[in-house]
Amino acid sequence: MDGFSDPVADHGGWEFALATRDASWSPALYRIHGVSPETFEATPENIRELVHPEDLEAYSASVRLAIESKSPFAVQHRIVRPDGEVRVVHVRGSYLPGADGAGDRLVGTTQDVTGREGDEERLWYLANHDSLTGLFNRRRLKEELKREISVARRTRESGAVAILDLDRFKDINDTLGHVAGDGLLVQAGERLRERLRATDSLARLGGDEFAIILPGCSLDEAKRVASELLGALRTGAVVRIAGLERPVLASVGVAEIATDGDRSPDELLVEADLAMYRGKAAGGNCVEVFDEEMRAELADRVEVEGQLRDALCSDQLTVHYQPIVSLADGNAIGFEALVRWNHPHRGLVSAAKFIPVAEQHGLIGEIGRFVLDDACARAAAWRHEGTNAYVSVNVSPLELVRDSVAETVRAALARTSLPPPLLQVEVTETSLIDDASKIAPALGELRKLGVRIAIDDFGGGTSSLGFLSALPIDVIKIDRMFVEGLVHRPDDRAIVAAVISLADELGLTVVAEGVEDQGQQSELRELGCRFAQGYLYARPVPPEKLSLEAYSAVVQPGVGDPSVIREFMRQIGIPARMGV
């Protein structure tokens, strides 16, 4: 088992392997118990000898229950040091399972709380510490950060604050369960603590996010420390999945505690958080430092958020439509509805600029309803004019998880008398990967309405293709990055060919996104792709600029189920044909 470095004096870490009964203690833990590694072997029997006889039963019961139930535990008890001194410790631990029972262990922390064991001191401790890891909580961290800002202003010596977030922690929870996830958080917290100085502050902000205050560190020094912390996690904290040990990876964002002291604790945490997420977007397992470019981006986001609220009240949002065409004859079979912002000073703002802000600040539901209503009304009007093209609407995963999307869609269809097969809902592949269990029920409700479901940006994710058969999906929209490389990159062509073949086997429709030239179109036709979308055919335009006369649009349900096609034809008044 790995050893421990020297953490804060009153707080020691430990690990206990259940199969081998090997224990590993940090130097601080030996000091708390008044023993040394040279004279004391940390076996279960020897550890029990250090527990106060009157507290031994409660201590043993807590540990035994943790092992039997495979759950976290916490117990406060007295210890008797070899010199006879009695001290009070607070022990927290978690059960961390290995593969097939091999390598299971308890990991945790022990803190000397002698003199603080009364009610008042205990309440203080609970108010300032995370209940799982024993680290500072967000409240206490912000107090420490406020103090450090004052110190930096007074001493004219800068410091740094870092936010560390474990990469793909959700996969561990989903694969091994929350008990294993909790155990890993305890283990990760201890690995971080043992690499820090006594003057540094470490906190768990919630979930798998930790924060570190590094007094007197320049940005270069803080970046070096952060890299060392990542190394400590990679080499000292492991998780076992499918019988294999996987290193624990993380992303870190660093922000400077400047000597001018013009940043509040909340502002510094936002800056470090923004840098951390930039690292995750770059692939994770890295350190990013908040810089002036990010500061400008942050200021812009704050400004956009305020102006977006005004835009929702002053009819500045509009919906543009881009045709989805048949590669056989170039006719449009549908139109994707794309929201735009007619900003009074910025001009036309794309969704990529303001949708993330809307999601972050709770505005996405209102925007989603606006686009849905406009799209359904347009499709109904086109149908009245004799053009039976469907409309495709993007739905944020937040809408699917939080809102009653099915009820919203049902109401929009009823108001406009639009047949459900003429509405398609698009969900990004990454949202399915991240939140499939939460999103699946909403997709099922939409499918019951007769609405089609499409996966947008397909191929850009990293998950198994198993969810294609598990979820109610009708259409796959191939990510534009693969379409871009069709002609010149054999690997991209092979991926597109595989997706089209798989879709055929599953009875799904494929739409290629981002088609910009004749070469890509020719390759898609050769591979058997039937539908496409991109600048080669048309850019997104306001509905009044659409020339519907140029299209002979016939809806393509794309479900692969003749009964669905017949029902659609019945609803729009087209007689069923022989062979359908």
What can you tell me about this protein's structure?
The chain has an eight-stranded mixed beta barrel. A five-stranded antiparallel beta sheet has the order 2-1-5-4-3. A five-stranded mixed beta sheet has the order 7-8-6-11-12, sandwiched between helices. A hairpin with a 5-residue loop joins strand 13 and strand 14. With 580 residues, the chain is an alpha/beta fold. Helix 14 crosses helix 15. It has three domains: 128 residues, 2-Layer Sandwich (Beta-Lactamase), CATH 3.30.450.20; 157 residues, Reverse transcriptase/Diguanylate cyclase domain (Alpha-Beta Plaits), CATH 3.30.70.270; 270 residues, EAL domain (TIM Barrel, Alpha-Beta Barrel), CATH 3.20.20.450. The N terminus and C terminus are likely disordered. The N and C termini lie far apart (67 Å).
Please outline the helices and strands:
Elements (H helix, E strand, L loop, with lengths): L10 E7 L5 E3 L1 H7 L10 H7 L5 H14 L3 E8 L5 E11 L8 E8 L6 H10 L9 H18 L3 E8 L2 H8 L1 H17 L6 E6 L2 E6 L4 H18 L1 E4 L2 E4 L2 E8 L7 H17 L5 E3 L2 H22 L3 E10 L5 E12 L3 E3 L1 H10 L3 H21 L5 E5 L2 H6 L2 H12 L6 E6 H21 L2 E7 L8 H4 L4 E4 L1 H5 L5 H17 L2 E4 L5 H10 L3 E2 L29 H11 L8
Parallel strand pairs: 11-12, 14-16, 16-17, 17-18, 18-19, 19-20, 20-21
Antiparallel strand pairs: 1-2, 1-5, 3-4, 4-5, 6-8, 6-11, 7-8, 9-10, 13-14, 13-21, 14-15
What is this entry, summarized?
Helix 6 (169-176) packs across helix 7 and helix 12 (364-384) packs parallel to helix 14. With 580 residues, this protein is α/β, with parallel strands linked by helices.
